[in-house]
Amino acid sequence: MAEQDFQPFAAAVGANVLTQAEYLALAALGPGFSSGILPSNNLNKVLRQSSIMAAVLGDLIEGVSGQNVLDDGTTTTILSNLASSIMRGGGIGIDSGAANAYIVALPIAPIAYETGMIVRFVPLNANTGASTINVNGLGVVDVIGQAGDVLQGAEIGVAPTAVIFNGTEFELLYSMGGKFQVPPATASNQAVNLGQSVAGGTLLDLTASRSLGTTYTNSTARPKIVMISVI
Q1: Burial of 204 (0-12, 13-18, 19+ CB in 10 A)
Q2: Which pLDDT score is estimated for 221?
Q3: Is the CB of residue 164 less than 8 Å from the CB of residue 143?
Q4: At 81, is the secondary structure helix, strand, or coil?
Q5: Residue 142, beta-bridge partner list
Q6: Residue 190: CB partners within 8 Å, gap ≥ 6?
Q7: Could you give the CA distance from residue 81 to residue 188 in angstroms, rounded to a whole number?
Q8: How is 5-25 classified by DSSP, letter by letter?
Q9: Alpha-carbon distance 77 to 186, whole Å?
């Protein structure tokens, strides 16, 4: 586990600090402290305000990037790891489930499923049919394809995968190497799915050579598509 040096100051229960209301009413809140004796509860509150945010940011960097966050007086490495955390988009989850039943642990655990949240992980197994996902123990949720249908198999590969929560289910955004579910086309420039392209007939892969002048005859209600490649 990586080392995270930035910890909150005066965060214990009953710590000697101003209440939040007292802090907001503090005359020095705007101009800062000047000369004189500074009450310890004033200083402790100021230190806690800054240190607790530093600790949260440090925990985020360590959790998402997996790198050390060291208090060594420099900022270069911390800044680099912060940038890495941002690019990782919340971290890559670890899958411990089985095919069709994915159990994912994110490095920074969410407290609930929220509409629009994206979960990235690398599955241990490809799916063979309808699938579910459980993120950090928040509950089992169905995974559907881009067309809004249950998965049929091979949509999820053993490769980087991302799903997005739509408020009810997780929709598969991508899975490298997985099959892509295509919704039925409703306009001329949209992609068609296999069901639309077959249109009740059968697509044949004719790899043998055909001479010019070959005649193809359609069966009743079975449209034929002939693709010609001239070399």
Answers
A1: exposed
A2: 59
A3: no
A4: helix
A5: 132
A6: none
A7: 46
A8: ----SS-STT-S---HHHHHT
A9: 51
Tell me which residue has tokens 């459980």. Answer: 134
| Mean per-residue pLDDT, 70-98 | 90
End-to-end CA distance of the chain: 59
Picking from 133, 137, 140, the residue whose alpha carbon sits closest to that of residue 155 is 133
- Single out the residue of 127, 104, 130, 129 nearest to residue 117, CA to CA: 104
Beta strands 161-165; 118-122: pairing state: antiparallel
Q: Residue 211 gets which letter from DSSP?
A: -
Beta carbons within 8 Å of 67's beta carbon, 6+ residues apart: 2, 61, 77, 81, 84
Locate all alpha helices (DSSP H) within 74-186, ordered by sequence: 76-87
Per DSSP (E only), the strands in the chain are 92-95, 101-105, 118-122, 131-135, 140-144, 161-165, 170-175
The answer to whether the predicted template modeling score (pTM) of the entire model surpasses 0.70 is no
d(CA 150, CA 131): 8
Mean pLDDT of 191-213: 61
Q: What tens digit of pLDDT does each residue of 121-156 get?
A: 999 999 999 999 999 999 999 999 999 999 999 999
Of 53, 33, 51, the residue nearest 42 (C-alpha):
33
- Per the CB < 8 A criterion, the answer to whether 178 and 156 are in contact is yes
**How many Å apart are CA 82 and CA 93, to the nearest integer?**
18
Contact 185, 163 (CB under 8 A): no
What is the C-alpha separation between 20 and 25, in angstroms, rounded?
Answer: 9
